[in-house]
Each structure stands twice: as structure tokens, then as C-alpha cells.
Write a structure and sequence with these properties.
Layout: H1 5-14, H2 22-25, H3 27-40, H4 49-62, H5 66-78, H6 83-97, H7 99-115, H8 133-145, H9 147-156, H10 162-177, H11 184-198, H12 202-214, H13 219-233, H14 235-254
Helix pairs in contact: 1-3, 4-5, 4-6, 4-11, 4-13, 5-7, 6-7, 6-10, 6-11, 8-9, 8-10, 11-12, 11-13, 12-14, 13-14
Length: 255
């Protein structure tokens, strides 16, 4: 099997002049993978290259693929993803993936940016203060999740768990989802990609399918995102996410 012209062209756009060592040691696998990831998968849906790359980077953080993240980060920057956008992907991963898992990706990101001559720290993107984060966070949470759903979460939480709801509003939404650098629809796609790639988060995936629909990312866009992730996260997690997506969207369409 030869690498297709489309795969070769798309690969060259992301990795100009680069010849993988695996192409010499494992040529059959590289041919299959490149034809799949850089040709066949890209025929489905209409994600622009930058959106495709940011959701793939988010997924790599979710599944802890730090070496592949480093490689694809270089490709993303080559394709026009900005340093600020890259930083926001990593920062947003913290409340969903956890700092323990994000730590290495933060350092890799800083190393790659520094190698490319980017001066750190980057301009700040925070829009809240310690005094406003809870109120602003609750407002954006209701915008994304839905006011009735958020009110129901607070109403149903036992007294000894109320602080978790408040932390979710102030920290996850107030500290992170209110930041500039990426808009809310893009951030919801990132969250969806991270949760899918983590595995075992089907209830949260379902919640963020609904959240994506609320902010304008329709079923077709979510399927296109999942298609773009298959080469990097595999079929089991993709199929689990598709099942959740079908349950959420087809049920909604039938109502």
C-alpha cells in the first residue's frame, strides 16, 4: 500500500520537510495510519484544520499521549493555531482532566513555544476577579448547561455537597470558561473531546453533548469531531461516545 497523494499533501502541510523515523522502521503501519488519519478521516465533515487540531490536542491531553501531543502541537502551530489558543487548551484541561495529568503537557507546551521564539508568559486571558468569579461562573454555567438544569443540580445536592456545586460554578466555569482566547462554542468542543478521550465519563459526555447543542455545535459537528479523534483515541472510546451522542440527540429530535 502506498501513501495516497492526499495523505502526503495533508501531512506535508502540517510537517513540512519532516520524514518520520517510523516510515523507515515500520513503513506498513505508517502507510496505513497516514492514509487513514491524513486522508480518509478528513473526507468526512467540514471541520477547518485549526478546529480539528485543537480538538485533537485536547483529546491527547485526555488520553495522556504526551509524546504525540508534542508532535501535533508543532503541527497545530504550523497550521495557524496561536500560542494563546494552545495555552487555553491546556488551561481548560485542568478542571476536566486534573492538574496531575495536565502538568507534563503544560511543560511540553512551554518548551515548544519557547523553542519557537514565543516569549512567556503570554498575555493574560482572565476576565474575573476573586470577587466576581462565582457570579460570572454561575452565569456562564447557566448559559452553557441551561438555567433550569443548573438550578436543579443545586436543588438536588445534599447540604454536605452544596460546596461542590459552588466550586464547580466558581472554579470550573468562573475561573476557566470565562477566559478569552477561545470562544464558548470552541471550549465546549474541547471539553467534549477531553471527556470522550478520558474514558469512563459517559454521564459527563452526555451532559456536554447537551451543552454543545445549547451553544450551537450540532450533531453533525460532534460526529465530525469524533471522526477526527478516531486515529488517536481508537474505536472503543469513539463508539462509547457515539452511543451517548445518539441517546442525547436522537431522543431530543424525537421530542
Amino acid at each position: 500500500m502506498a501513501i495516497s497523494d492526499a495523505a502526503r499533501r495533508n501531512h506535508e502541510e502540517l510537517f513540512p520537510g519532516h520524514v518520520s523515523t517510523l516510515a523507515r522502521t515500520d513503513p506498513e503501519l505508517v502507510e496505513v495510519f497516514d492514509n487513514f488519519a491524513f486522508d480518509e478521516v478528513l473526507r468526512h465533515g467540514n471541520l477547518d484544520a485549526r478546529t480539528r487540531l485543537i480538538v485533537q490536542l485536547a483529546a491527547m491531553i485526555g488520553c495522556q499521549a504526551v509524546s504525540e501531543y508534542r508532535v501535533m502541537l508543532g503541527a497545530a502551530l504550523t497550521a495557524g493555531v496561536t500560542p494563546v489558543q494552545v495555552e487555553e487548551i491546556v488551561y481548560q484541561a485542568v478542571p476536566y482532566v486534573g492538574m496531575a495529568k495536565v502538568f507534563d503537557f503544560l511543560h511540553v507546551t512551554n518548551e515548544v513555544l519557547t523553542e519557537r521564539g514565543v516569549e512567556l508568559p503570554l498575555p493574560g486571558q482572565s476576565t474575573t476577579t476573586p470577587e466576581t468569579r462565582a457570579e460570572r461562573g454561575l452565569a456562564v454555567q447557566k448559559q452553557i448547561v441551561g438555567a433550569e438544569r443548573v438550578d436543579a443540580l443545586y436543588a438536588s445536592a445534599p447540604e454536605d455537597e452544596q460546596h461542590i456545586q459552588r466550586l464547580l460554578s466558581a472554579n470550573c466555569f468562573g475561573d476557566h470558561l470565562t477566559r478569552t482566547g477561545l470562544d464558548v462554542p470552541a471550549r465546549e468542543l474541547l471539553t467534549f473531546a477531553m471527556l470522550v478521550s478520558l474514558g469512563g465519563c459517559e454521564p459527563q459526555v452526555k451532559g456536554h453533548v447537551a451543552a454543545n447543542l445549547n451553544v450551537g455545535n450540532d450533531r453533525n459537528r460532534l460526529i465530525t469531531v469524533l471522526t477526527a479523534l478516531i486515529p488517536f483515541i481508537g474505536y472503543p472510546r469513539t463508539l462509547n461516545a457515539l452511543r451517548v451522542l445518539d441517546e442525547a440527540t436522537l431522543t431530543r429530535e424525537d421530542q
